[in-house]
Every structure is written in structure tokens, then in C-alpha cells.
Amino acid sequence: MNTATAADHIGAVILDVDGVLTDGRIGYGSGPDEIKFFDVRDGLGIRLLQNAGVRVCLLSGRASPANRRRAEELRLDAVVEGATDKTAGLQGLLERLGLSAAACCYVGDDLIDIPVLRRVGLAVAVADAAEEVRAVAHWVTAAPGGRGAVREVAERLLKARGVWSEVCRRYEC
Asked: Whole-model pTM?
């Protein structure tokens, strides 16, 4: 698939959380809280997409206070958690956003993501995704999940749209 062609039609980037925005590991202490680590470069990539008019959403199989906190911090457009059926979760997001699946990019890493990847206009797998996920993706990031993969997606989409030079001017690149 030609990313430049697809990028023109992408109105939303939908992200899995565990294994995409994080490295997939979950830490537990003696209390009920769990610990996840999010890459700040991914966060800036999300902000850059938002500044370019692309909506960003989460579609996660797990519900987690850490997910919600990160989503609030980044002012994401929508969050669906606990989606054991991600196809139904995708449908709910599409209705909420008023978009078709073809107008969405989805970034996933594991088997539960395959049905969504097969339905969207631009399917992306992170570098360390399951082999079956990489096989159905339109492209695979060079960066692993939780280590800049989302930033890579953001840069590639913005470059394909021809707006990366504007982003660089803003930051005096």
C-alpha cells in the first residue's frame, strides 16, 4: 500500500495500548495500582497528529487507570477499554467519530488486533508485533511498541501529507 495515498484519507489514528503505546509489560506493587511506561516521543507524535487535524483514539483490550490517565493527558478524542471484541469496539469508535473504517489507521501488535487491522484503510504493526500481525499489516514500524513506534507512524503520516516541513519550522529543525 502507498502510505502517501492512504495518508490523505486518514481522519483518525486508532491505537492499541499494551504493546503499542507501552512495551506490553505491566508492573504490580503491593497495592492495586499497575505501572506502565509511555514514551514521551510517542506523546509528541500524537500531539503533532492532533495539530494536523487527525483525531487520535485508543482501543484497548484491557481497562486500566494508567490508560485513562495517559488519554486525558493527551486529550485523546475517544477511548474504548476492555474491548475483548475489538471489531465491536472499532464500530463504536467509527459511529462516535462519524468516519468509515477506510478513513482510519490502526496500530496493533497482537492477535486480538488482526480483525481491526483487516478492516481499516491503513493497518500498521509495531516492529515487535506477533508474526501473524506483521503479515496482515500494510507496513511495519522500525521501532518496537512503547519505544517510539507511534511517533514513527505520526511522522510517516505527516510526511506523506506534505506537512512535515511545517512541523519542523515550528520547532526550528
From this structure: 0.95
Give the number of other CB atoms < 10 A from CB of residue 162. Answer: 11
User: Measured at the alpha carbon of residue 123, what is the angle toward residues 43 and 34, in degrees to the nearest 5?
Assistant: 45
Which CA distances in Å does 34 have to 44, 130, 157? 23, 24, 32
Distance CA 124, CA 91 (A): 18
pLDDT digits (tens, 9 = 90+) for 85-136: 999 999 999 999 999 999 999 999 999 999 999 999 999 999 999 999 999 9
Our count of domains for the chain comes to 1
Task: Assess if residue 107 is contained within a domain.
Answer: no
The boundaries of the domain holding residue 70 are: 33-49+65-77
Nearest to 18 by CA among 107, 124, 139: 107
**What is residue 18's predicted lDDT score, i.e. its pLDDT?**
96
Beta strand 55-59 pairing with 12-15: parallel
